[in-house]
Amino acid sequence: MYWPVATPRIYATSSQAPYRPKADLSNDGIDAAPAADTASLLTLDSAASAPNPADENPGESASELPTPATPALFSPRTPRTPGINSVEHDYMNHGSGLSSQESLGGSQQVAIPSGEPIVSLKVSRTGHLFATITATTMTVWQTKPTVILAVVVRSQASVRSYGTNLALLLRPDSAIFVVQTSLGYLITYSLATDAESRVYKPHFSDHTNIQRRRQSHFGGPGNSSPDQIFLGAGEGSGVRDISVRFRRVIKVDAGIEHVLALDDELVVATRKPAAVQCIRWTPDSTGSQTSTELVSRMGWLEKKISIKEMTHDRPMNLSTWITSDGKAYAIQRTSATQGPSQDEEAGPKRLFKGYCFHVPEGESTRAVKAVVNARFSLIAVGCADGSIHVYSVKDYSGNIPASHIHKNPVSSKSSGQLTTITYSPDGYCLFAGYEEGWATWSVFGKAASTSFGANSSVSANNKEDWLTGVAEACWIGGACEVLLLGRQSESIWLLEMARSAVTGCYNPPNLFRTVLQSSSSVMVYRGYDLPDLTSISAEPFLWHTARIPSSYLLNQWPVRCTVVSADGRYVAIAGRRGLAHYSINSGRWKTFGSEAAENEFSVRGGMCWYQHILVAAVEANRSYELRLYSREAALDSGTAMFTQTLPAPVVLITPSGEDSLLVYTYDNLLYHFVFAPVGNAVRPIQVGQIAFHGIVRSPARVRGLSWILPESQLVDGDPSQDVAVASVLFLVDGKLVLLQPSLNSEGHLKYDMRVISQNVEYYISMRDQSAVHMLGENHGHFTGDAEEAPLKNSLWIFEGHDLKAWPDVNEVLRAATESTKELPPTANMPLDFYPLSILLGKGIVLGVEPDLVQRRDISFSFFRFSIRTHLYLPEILRFHLATNNSLAALKLAQTYQDLEYFAHGLEILLHHVLDEEVDSAPAPEAALLPRVLSLLSSFKQYLDIVVQCTRKTEVRSWRTLFAYLPPPQELFEESLQRGSLKTAGGYLLILHTFDELHTASEQSVRLFSRAIREEDWELCKELARFLAAMDESGETLREAMELVNLRVKQDRDEGADLMSRLEVPSRRFNGASRRDSDTGSDTPSASDASSYGTVSPA
Fold first, then answer.
1. Which of 628, 767, 866, 1043 is a Cys-bridge partner for 1005, taking CB atoms 3.0 to 4.6 Å apart?
2. Where are stretches of biased composition, namely Low complexity (predicted)?
3. Where are the alpha helices (DSSP H) in 6-63?
């Protein structure tokens, strides 16, 4: 559901020496005299940004960390710098801004070393800043605007003493930075910021002409403050003023394998001895700050191994370890407050418990990287061959079965080693970086985009390191952008990503209509109401692109939620606070008239449209509400049409049917509202609710929801009774769960639960599509009402690789009532692109695929995405025929028979079935081919389809095909009788192949003369070429021409005799026409002797 767009932006400390910003030199405490005190890693003065006592009194020095229990792991006395100044730089205007640092003794200005590649890149949890390191420097960046806030350059003495920088870690709240060095040291720095101070702020003394916030046709200027006109999306807060201060050096004599920075502690995996040491940022209540556990004493780990990599996921409270033997473990911390006991032999305190879930089968499947996807409860393990094995976390007791595999898009030799893997914040996209490129997949394994198709020479000439290898990657901006760090590169690349609106707001309109959102625009596919062949083209005009107003993006970036109306007329977006909506017809945005009204609430739980009314689930002043906004009214405080207070936050809202609204909340209640007119306005009226306590364990894990009502309830049922008879579909993580109501022995309502599909990225119930909008799309293709449409009750699911469909969901409901009964089979549609919506009226699946464009006339590469379509009709027809439901297949085919590409769909069906049965040779009673041919014979394109299929298959397949067909001679005669001359020519070739066509046969002569009479000179040319190819002497063609001339002359004489008897004037009628008896169509008159003549071979 994610695709790269355009070309990335590039950032670096400097590309030209004169503009290289200055930085502060840090000796990292090596000049200070050692002493002892009782300070912690994060002292109170650093947390409060107060002056450091050591700064005021250079004679004071820092303390050492408490010595760990393991003798080989210790933190010796490490002196702290007597006065490292805070390092803040305004990188706007080539570093010519102001600096607020103090001029303390021991600090000096130095230039940033040039030519050093970036070693590591890390982003804070909130994404508002990120940091990079080179071998000797550390740079702190602000995300929006993307500028340098501080640079620290380590002195030569520090580099000699501690080694060069190897890795960077950020405490999740970004208050502490930790740099791992090559000589086994950890250097810590603290960061403090002033929420009110700004480094750079433009000022205009006269701003009478500055454009104010307004309702605009486009996303142009419209900022409310004159000093913001230079700022872009998310840059309203300006450039912050921060202070970076050296704190402490930690030495690990045992050698560092990997380090992990958590909220409460620093976790260090050591080499000799192999152990895990936990160093708290601040001492606990007992004064303890460190705790250690040897790997050899972890009974659930193999002996004589070390820990190579560690990751941690805060939402799931789960860590992963990768060991030196290539295994992967799921880890939980047993205690973060107590260290090991003094008598380890008697009973050491266990710090961790874990379970092995990935065991390599060989060298190629040894684990090298791991990452946790909390949104879908998955763990992805990157292997040595570049493939990524994904496991599903069922519980915290080691039940972690294999789920699926993301295959390396190229060979492991072409891709190089796997360097990084990371999931997007919403969990829908997996990004993998390799030494020679990168690739992305959807959450359950659908390949999305890759850089391995890039031209290496063009990329090298353009110095586009982001295409030729990735060292690290981090998502920012709510997954609308990704930071890429190339191998041995001095630059950072910021690549923009477009994603489906379903990722932020899961509801039926977003599934029925393809809507993509990027960092600054919304793209809506508008081919639904266009002619069939136009709607499946890849032309850019099929996209309606609307730029989001900059006045809204200034402070509310990134956009988190986008929703389209069921009729495709309106679009609404919501960012950090407030919302905005847009009319596709008028091209006009509406935003809030004041910043106070916009910042008063945030959308939480999604949005949806009911006609021209926008329904938003919001959180305002710690209350949770449903608000209704009319598209026709202005957005401002108090302009909401209606407000409904709810007792708990909303998980999601979704429209259902014509006038129903389903609201699911975090207290595990599903509310049913019905829109009804009250006075002169429309109000949602609650008519029922369902409690799912004990059924749905975690409401936060629910991604999608809908329900299915019986037909009788839809027609004349009481809406207040819908909750008692509705079957509810929940999409929980990747499982599609069906809940069916029933009564227990006491007569109370209960629900029977059954998982009907796994690894589901999304599902679509066609019952949620309004009948009005179905007919609006179909352009008369459907012969009956929408209620009679064959796929009206279908249920579609996308399982990562294949799109599957149950043509009738009622069969699923009946099968699910019995837990032992198997679910009905599905129609499977393998796709080579990511499907986004089902166009029921056009019989196609719509999706997009990215395309990397590299041209030699421009100095950069860029991504664009193109429309892809797949005709699902052959698969659904085959499904019905395979289940001996020929009547359903015929009804479905008749529904789509007016499509311009209907015959093409039937040809695909015949071609696929023929190819399979030629190889498999099934028994006649089990063969599917005769059922397909029986279905095809019901349509006028039958003869053409058979001929087209033979032209595209090998001759060995023809015998299998015609074993279930009338003789080719009969099909030739029927084609000639219908006037399908080109089709008859195709059967002429078949007759020749089957040796049923003799030299200068009567069939060739009849077809040739008929083509001359109807002036089909192209066919005449093809027939002449065909006859000439039958023998090298040309005798066959000459003999045929003589017979053709004789037949033409006879036809001319008969026509002349007929005209004389009818007393037709002798004057020629070149434009006359008559009704041909064979074809029943208007053809040129045979009586006009001048319209055809004799033909002789040349």
1. 1043
2. 95-109
3. 44-47, 53-56
